């Protein structure tokens, strides 16, 4: 076998296989070039899903004839002025995109510098480069790709339908636009604008949050903007900003999770795992929150040169990054108090309205024009440490007329009734609140367990008759091996022969819990593969949140239990004083708030 050098054209086609996977990949590279060129308006046009035409026009700095000729050469770039691959501050830097596209399509570039009196153009077809010629164009650059993959027809067979390829391009543009609210973006498919994002006004750095939220709302929907919690945290030279959704605003996949590092959209397992870990106490394992996070790190602390498409990064100190994300999100969720997303009440009103439909696909899907943000502002005064449940404050019985004057003091209102022995109906100052008593009490117990863990251990009580639980041998050994850690949760277990454990002490707050079912569920929570990233790598300390949630579920007030007026009001008051009480440990809402104005609309009074 003889070793030989590959022809330049073949090298470019091989590079195109890494850089230009599909039309959306070409759009990504060209839009990133436009952003790096300082553009303030970027327009994308596609025909036939990008097969026939991809055109990207910007008003950036442009290129002169000499730069234009160099731009289509391999490894030619303007973004590494000092040849430093450590401190990279631009989106693109490899210098492979344009020559790779020219090797598999008919590429043309027209560009004009701001102070130049004329524009210039160059063409590359199947790798054959033409001459630089005069052309007509205002300031900026227009890049056109026609007949994508005509030089490599086998690649065409792997492209999906026009609709699918266009959807990928729309997602690509939206991701890039989310980090750049100061730039206007459009994407047209020849018939209509699929993306149309105007410049978000910013008069100073303080407006960045508002501008970014406006852009996120335009991309992710007003439901996210109405139920987003701001994030702004710093640690060891890293800064994390952005917005995260309330746990009750969730989806069955991670499609609405957007992560950026130094303005670059990335798909990083570390970052996704950190988000999942932050929400572990509030969402079931098959539900995903909506987030948009922007991490700013010193260029030398992150390596963006680990993937041909630059969609993955590597951090010098991944532990600090993960800790920053988890801590910032948990702090924001704690600040939200008992607030639940407005989409919960919107879905309820949609179901009640004649001809309306409820939430979509297992989440709490937002409807436009519904009720306001909720009661988080009123609840701020109640964000005190969780009170002792036995000593919880009690409101007067709901039948008392004295409640009318004091109703405004209680964000969750005063209990008026219990229906189906499951739901508490309370009257607030401007509407009604419907509470799921089991879900609400589950969250309260969960928070008490967590508080006990932070304060040296959950109080426990000995069992008069120890409970023997039969399991398979592996599960029994696993529980026995973690006996010391479980003791901090108030559960004293010991091995009891092969395939069994004995429970001698249980958390005092559990009451008459089903210890058999509890122990079996805990064995499942501690099984390998339960880690935050689904690979079994999470430590027991990381998993204790799920263990606490399991214990809370087994000890909570069950649906079907009749409550008297003081018990119902005590539950409401504890919810107002407890962080995260707007959702149970599985991300479901604990209450629905219906404003009086919305109820009046249902009956045609408004």
Description:
This protein has 606 residues and is an alpha+beta fold. It has three domains: 8-197, Histidine kinase-like ATPase, C-terminal domain (Heat Shock Protein 90), CATH 3.30.565.10; 205-335, Ribosomal Protein S5, domain 2; 357-606, MutL, C-terminal domain, dimerisation subdomain (formyl-coa transferase, domain 3), CATH 3.30.1540. Helices cover 34% and strands 22% of the residues. The protein has 20 helices and 25 strands. Helix 9 runs parallel beside helix 10 (318-335), helix 14 (437-454) crosses helix 19 and helix 17 runs antiparallel to helix 18.
Q: Under CATH, the topology of the largest domain is which?
A: formyl-coa transferase, domain 3
Oligomer: single chain
CATH H level, superfamily name of the largest domain: MutL, C-terminal domain, dimerisation subdomain
The CATH top-level class label of the largest domain: Alpha Beta
Strand content: 15-25%
Please tally the β strands and state the result. Answer: 25
Name the poorly predicted regions.
355-399, 530-538
Largest sheet: 9 strands, mixed
Distance between the termini: 84 Å
Helicity level, as a percent range? Answer: 25-40%
Shape: elongated
Number of domains: 3
CATH architect. name of the largest domain:
2-Layer Sandwich
| Overall pLDDT | 81
Kindly name the structural category: alpha+beta
**Distinct helical segment count:** 20
Radius of gyration: 29 Å
């Amino acid at each position: 076998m003889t070793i030989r050098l590959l022809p330049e054209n073949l090298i470019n086609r091989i590079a195109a296989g890494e850089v230009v996977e599909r039309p959306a990949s070409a759009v990504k590279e060209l839009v990133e070039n436009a952003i790096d060129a300082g553009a303030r308006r970027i327009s994308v046009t596609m025909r036939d899903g990008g097969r026939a035409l991809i055109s990207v026009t910007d008003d950036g700095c442009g290129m002169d004839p000499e730069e234009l000729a160099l731009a289509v050469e391999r490894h030619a770039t303007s973004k590494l002025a000092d040849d430093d691959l450590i401190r990279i501050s631009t989106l693109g830097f490899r210098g492979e995109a344009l020559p790779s596209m020219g090797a598999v399509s008919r590429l043309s570039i027209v560009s004009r510098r701001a102070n130049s009196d004329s524009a210039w153009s160059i063409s590359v077809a199947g790798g054959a480069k033409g001459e630089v010629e005069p052309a007509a164009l205002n300031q900026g650059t227009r890049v056109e790709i026609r007949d994508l993959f005509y030089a490599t027809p086998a690649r065409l067979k792997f492209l999906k339908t026009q609709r699918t390829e266009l959807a990928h391009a729309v997602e690509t543009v939206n991701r890039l636009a989310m980090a750049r609210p100061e730039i206007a973006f459009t994407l047209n498919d020849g018939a209509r604008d699929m993306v149309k994002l105007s410049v978000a006004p910013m008069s100073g750095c303080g407006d960045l949050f508002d501008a970014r939220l406006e852009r996120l709302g335009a991309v992710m929907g007003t439901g996210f903007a109405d139920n987003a919690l701001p994030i702004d945290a710093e640690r060891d030279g890293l800064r994390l900003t952005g917005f995260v959704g309330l746990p009750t605003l969730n989806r069955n996949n991670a499609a609405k999770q957007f992560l950026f590092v130094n303005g670059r959209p990335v798909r990083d397992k570390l970052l996704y795992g950190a988000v999942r870990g932050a929400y572990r106490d509030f969402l079931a394992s098959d539900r995903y929150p909506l987030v948009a996070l922007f991490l700013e790190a010193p260029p030398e602390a992150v390596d963006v040169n680990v993937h041909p498409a630059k969609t993955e990064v590597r951090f010098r100190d991944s532990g600090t990054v993960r800790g920053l994300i988890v801590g910032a999100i948990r702090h924001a969720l704690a600040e939200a108090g008992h607030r639940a997303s407005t989409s919960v009440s919107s879905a309820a009103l949609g179901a009640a309205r004649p001809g309306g439909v409820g939430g979509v696909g297992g989440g709490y899907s937002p409807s436009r024009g519904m009720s306001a943000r909720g009661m988080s502002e009123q609840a701020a005064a109640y964000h005190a440490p969780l009170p002792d449940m036995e000593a919880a404050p009690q409101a007067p019985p709901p039948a008392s007329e004295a409640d009318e004057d004091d109703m405004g003091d209680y964000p969750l209102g005063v209990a008026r009734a219990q229906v189906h022995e499951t739901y508490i109906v309370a009257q607030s100052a401007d509407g009604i609140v419907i509470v799921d008593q089991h879900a609400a009490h589950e969250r309260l117990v969960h928070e008490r367990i967590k508080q006990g863990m932070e304060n040296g251990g959950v109080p426990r009580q000995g069992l008069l008759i120890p409970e023997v639980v039969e399991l398979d041998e592996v599960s029994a050994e696993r529980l026995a091996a973690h006996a010391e850690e479980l003791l901090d949760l108030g559960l004293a277990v010991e091995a009891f022969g092969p395939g069994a454990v004995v429970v001698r002490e249980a958390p005092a707050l559990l009451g008459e819990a089903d210890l058999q079912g509890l122990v079996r569920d805990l064995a499942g929570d501690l099984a390998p593969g339960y880690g935050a990233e689904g690979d079994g790598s999470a430590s027991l300390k990381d998993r204790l949140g799920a263990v606490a949630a399991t214990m809370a579920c087994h000890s909570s007030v069950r649906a079907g239990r009749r409550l008297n007026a003081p018990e119902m009001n005590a539950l409401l008051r504890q919810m107002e004083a407890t962080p995260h009480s707007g959702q149970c440990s599985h991300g479901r809402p604990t209450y629905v708030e219906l404003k009086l104005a919305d109820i009046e609309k249902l009956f045609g009074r408004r």
